[in-house]
Amino acid sequence: MEVLGKAKASVLAGISREVDDGAAVSQLAAMEETVSKLYRSISDYLANMARYYASLSVTFGAISEEEIKHRDRVLQKKPSS
After folding, report:
1. Where are the domains of the chain?
2. Dihedral (C-alpha) 9, 11, 17, 18: value to the nearest 10 degrees?
3. From 7, 47, 48, 72, which residue has the greatest number of CB atoms within 10 Å?
């Protein structure tokens, strides 16, 4: 996020020196679009990571259930005292 802050500051500094209002507005709009794309990219990445970890959760849940079944089989074979 530090990089984003520096990029915004740089663009805003350039806009503040712009004498043509139309050019300043165009630069600001372009910056907003670029920032939007960055946030979309981060959002997509996090959504993919969430799906990946949700899948892992299901896998580990299934492994947990298998281990309980193994435990039950072991206990069934336990000799009576």
Report:
1. 2-76
2. -160
3. 7
